[in-house]
């Protein structure tokens, strides 16, 4: 039996892959814990530290184009909508999306997935001039060398949350993509609260749940936030490995559903499942076609990649939608 080092986030629907209940034929899994899992992304891309690893999808397509010898299977462990992720500064005067033209917006790193999805929404759905905006960042991208000229790196040590509260930027993404943390991912980073929101900041889209559901119904886009990658060397040795991995993740999800059919352990995913009227984390190619192509389109249009929507980016394998 071959050993596979595997680094994943803490998800109940992938736990059976790590503990062996969902077996990968011919392999024994050696789980590697990395907290926050975002810290593993950089280690995988720059050092190929793991055999199998969860990655941000944007980082994956960038790394793939940069020649990093990894390939993906269409397993997406995390999803989320983004209309509710933009907060505006007190006194900014931002009322509608195009009010952001020419302004300063905070995001952890230019290629962070929330930023790419959020910019894509602003540009495609609302006509925001993305090139006119200064993107204020306070961390490095996992794949270096793609930061456009209209970015500004915070150099005085203050967090994006502090800058937003002070009105020195006009808007910012929330959570791990912006104001909910400070600096590069380290232990305890996800629970950091660098600035207490006084309630003076406000959402760009107050009725985000309604808008997100409408967006999904119109476009079929359900933003991807996690993809599973494997080192090319292992696929070359065993061309069936992508299919074996895919089947194990499908089995793991089913084992979780058998125990928790309503996704009660993950309320956000449960809510999103109700919003879309289906599986909150669908795997496979066909059911995710609109989302995959939007990911490729947004990444290209924002200067991060050169590929086109529909270009193959997944390892050859058998991937029945699940």
Structure description:
With 322 residues, the protein is an alpha/beta fold. It has two domains: 158 residues, Periplasmic binding protein-like II (D-Maltodextrin-Binding Protein, domain 2, 3-Layer(aba) Sandwich), CATH 3.40.190.10; 137 residues, D-Maltodextrin-Binding Protein, domain 2 (3-Layer(aba) Sandwich). The chain is 32% helix and 13% strand. β1, α1 and β2 form a beta-alpha-beta unit. α4 crosses α10. The longest helix is centred in the C-terminal third of the chain and has 19 residues. It starts with a strand and ends in a 21-residue tail after the last helix. 45% of the residues are buried.
Total beta strands: 11
Unreliable segments (pLDDT under 50, ≥5 consecutive)?
none
Taken in chain order, the helices and strands follow as EHEHEHEEEHEEHEEHEHHHH
CATH hierarchy, class of the largest domain: Alpha Beta
Overall 3D geometry? globular
In short:
The chain has 322 residues and is α/β, with parallel strands linked by helices. The protein contains 10 helices and 11 strands. Helix 4 links the parallel strand 6 and strand 7.
Compile the SSE list and pairings:
Blueprint lengths: L1 E6 L7 H5 L7 E5 L6 H10 L4 E4 L1 H9 L4 E4 L12 E3 L15 E3 L6 H14 L7 E4 L13 E3 L6 H6 L5 E3 L28 E2 L4 H12 L7 E5 H6 L3 H19 L7 H10 L12 H13 L21
Helix pairs in contact: 4-10
Keywords:
13% strand; 322 residues; D-Maltodextrin-Binding Protein, domain 2; five-stranded mixed β-sheet; 2 domains; six-stranded mixed β-sheet; single chain; alpha/beta; 10 helices
């Amino acid at each position: 039996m071959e050993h596979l080092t595997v680094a994943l986030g803490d998800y109940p629907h992938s736990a059976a892959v790590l503990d062996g209940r969902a077996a990968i034929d011919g392999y024994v899994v050696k789980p590697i814990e990395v907290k926050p899992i975002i810290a593993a992304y950089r280690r995988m891309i720059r050092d190929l530290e793991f055999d199998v690893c969860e990655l941000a999808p944007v980082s994956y397509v960038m790394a793939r184009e940069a020649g990093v010898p990894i390939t993906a299977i269409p397993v997406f462990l995390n999803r989320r909508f983004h209309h509710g992720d933009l907060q505006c500064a007190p006194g900014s005067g931002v009322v509608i999306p195009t009010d952001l033209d020419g302004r300063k917006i905070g995001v952890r790193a230019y290629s962070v997935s929330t930023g790419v999805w959020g910019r894509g929404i602003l540009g495609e759905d609302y006509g925001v001039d993305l090139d006119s905006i200064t993107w204020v960042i306070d961390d490095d991208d996992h794949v270096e060398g793609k930061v456009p000229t209209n970015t500004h790196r915070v150099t005085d040590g203050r967090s994006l949350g502090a800058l937003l509260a002070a009105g020195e930027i006009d808007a910012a993404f929330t959570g791990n993509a912006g104001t909910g943390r400070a600096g590069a991912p380290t232990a305890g980073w996800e629970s950091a609260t660098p600035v207490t929101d006084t309630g003076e900041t406000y959402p760009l889209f107050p009725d985000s749940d309604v808008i997100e559901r409408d967006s999904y119904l119109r476009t079929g886009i359900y933003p991807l936030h996690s993809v599973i990658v494997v080192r090319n060397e292992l696929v070359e040795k065993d061309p069936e490995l992508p299919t074996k991995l895919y089947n194990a993740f499908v089995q793991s999800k089913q084992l979780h559903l058998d125990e928790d059919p309503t996704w009660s352990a993950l309320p956000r995913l449960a809510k999103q499942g109700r919003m879309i009227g289906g599986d909150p984390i669908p795997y496979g190619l066909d059911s995710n076609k609109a989302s995959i192509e939007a990911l490729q389109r947004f990444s290209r249009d924002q200067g991060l990649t050169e590929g086109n929507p529909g270009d193959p980016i997944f390892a050859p394998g058998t991937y029945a939608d699940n």
